[in-house]
Amino acid sequence: MKECHFSNRFIAFPEVTTEAVFSLDDDIGTLSVDEIEFAYQTWRENPERLVGFLPRSDMHNESNGIYVYNSESSKNMSIIVTGAAFYHKGFYFQYYGILYHNFLPILMRNCILAVKNCEDIAMNFLISTLTGKCPLKVMLRKKFGCPDCSTNGISIWATRQIVQRLECFDKFPAWISEKSFIFSSFRYDSLPYRYSSFTPLDDSFRQVGTL
Predict the structure, then answer these.
(1) Among 93, 118, 166, 178, which is least packed, fewest CB within 10 Å?
(2) CA-to-CA distance for 110 and 129, rounded, in angstroms?
(3) What is the CATH number of domain 9-188?
(4) What are phi and psi of 164, to 5 degrees?
């Protein structure tokens, strides 16, 4: 692994002994412990799914067959960005990471390597195809702070990234179908977060982020 490939984040390293893998980008700096714990507990109830905070969606134009990537947060989503997400190291006796590097078409992985993006879209495609289930969004948070973006140039909202992801959706239809990504409007929230009048027996999930 001499080169830094974006797909390396999904390598099933033998040093990872837990079933849960928390994938986190280095420009996500505002997640609280409660938010991470709540996402983990949600994943434990749905271990075959991708569980995370940043939803995205794809749109299929039936008239011309073109897929379009929607980078805005909305009620309906079909993709969870793996910049802040839990997934199972292995399910159905297979490692998702191993399947990612061996099951996905080589041309799709080469496209990811070329544009240096879209590995999370491919992982969503893989998991939804294998399970027939949509990813899960937790909490209502829409944006995440990036304390160092002004100095190191890192930004998950950069225009260049959107262009790269649109390029992926321009090439991916050779392998994906209209049913590759499964839509959902469902969201997991903690009771104290959704209902201010709710009084839990302890202080679980009190420190959740604002919009």
Answers:
(1) 93
(2) 20
(3) 3.90.550.10
(4) -65, -40
